[in-house]
């Protein structure tokens, strides 16, 4: 549920047989959206009423279950160990980045991600140490949601998923492929796979405890807007768009520099000065 704050972590695989019943209960317990919500509706969030109900459920789950565990994990875990755990899961995510880079036509980024995985998996003792970054080998994180954007699905509606949190219809469509591209999915031992998934979740949440203090005002809208801006930034590979003031095609109109504007201003100043001197 905190994906908007940290995209270095891999997608978490949650499964619940009671999810349909949970969604029915959430929908039945909520009323209609308020008039103010309708007036201030975000065009990227046409399902805000439903999303807020799911957000409220995720928030309660986090407040009474995940967040306390994350605080305990941070308290008892030495910083070097916590860093190593984060490096380990981030290294596994390089596989997904390499695959999506190929699908997006970015061979250079795919090569960097592959190099990072091989270096950190060997010299870095299974990814616990991030030697690739020390060697200045870095790659842009890529996932299937970004791949779908490159393929033409640029704009997408905001959607809050139970357990997973902020997403879009496009990113949700790519979620099964993200899970399939994550190595932990193929661990045959159920105990080991579930333990690794839980550790990844707790470590991710612990890393967001400090950033949570940045939230101001309406928590739902703050997280929604931050997530959408973050995803747009990632889809565009960090490009913020054209700056008209930095573009050679930006033209000023002669009227913008009309001398009469300055003359009127000077005349007004003289009149004021004359009156003051007379006094």
Automatic annotation (TrEMBL):
This is VacJ family lipoprotein. Keywords: Lipoprotein, Signal. It holds the Pfam family MlaA. Residues 250-279 have a biased composition (Acidic residues). GO terms for biological process: intermembrane phospholipid transfer. Belongs to the MlaA family. Residues 239-279 are annotated as: Disordered. Residues 1-38 form the signal peptide. GO terms for cellular component: membrane.
């Amino acid at each position: 549920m905190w994906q908007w704050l940290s995209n270095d972590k891999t997608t978490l695989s949650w499964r619940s047989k009671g999810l349909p019943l949970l969604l029915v209960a959430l929908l039945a317990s909520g009323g209609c959206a308020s008039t103010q919500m309708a007036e201030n509706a975000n065009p990227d969030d046409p399902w805000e009423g439903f999303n807020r109900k799911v957000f409220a459920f995720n928030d309660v789950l986090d407040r009474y279950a995940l967040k306390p565990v994350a605080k305990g994990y941070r308290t008892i875990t030495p910083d070097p160990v916590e860093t190593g755990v984060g490096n380990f899961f981030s290294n596994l995510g390089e596989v997904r980045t390499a695959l999506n880079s190929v699908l997006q036509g970015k061979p250079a980024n795919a090569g960097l991600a592959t190099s990072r995985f091989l270096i950190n998996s060997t010299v870095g003792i299974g990814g616990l140490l991030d030697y690739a970054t020390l060697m200045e080998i870095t790659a842009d994180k890529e996932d299937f949601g970004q791949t779908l954007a490159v393929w033409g699905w640029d704009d997408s509606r905001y959607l809050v998923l139970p357990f997973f949190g902020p997403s879009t219809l496009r990113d949700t469509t790519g979620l099964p492929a993200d899970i399939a591209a994550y190595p932990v999915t193929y661990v045959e031992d159920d105990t080991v796979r579930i333990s690794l998934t839980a550790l990844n979740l707790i470590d991710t949440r612990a890393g967001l405890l400090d950033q949570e203090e940045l939230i101001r005002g309406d928590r739902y809208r703050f997280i929604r807007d931050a997530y959408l801006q973050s995803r747009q930034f990632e889809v565009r590979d960090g490009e913020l768009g054209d700056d008209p003031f930095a573009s050679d095609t930006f033209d000023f109109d002669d009227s913008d520099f009309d001398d009469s504007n300055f003359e009127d201003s000077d005349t007004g100043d003289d009149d004021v000065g004359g009156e003051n001197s007379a006094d």
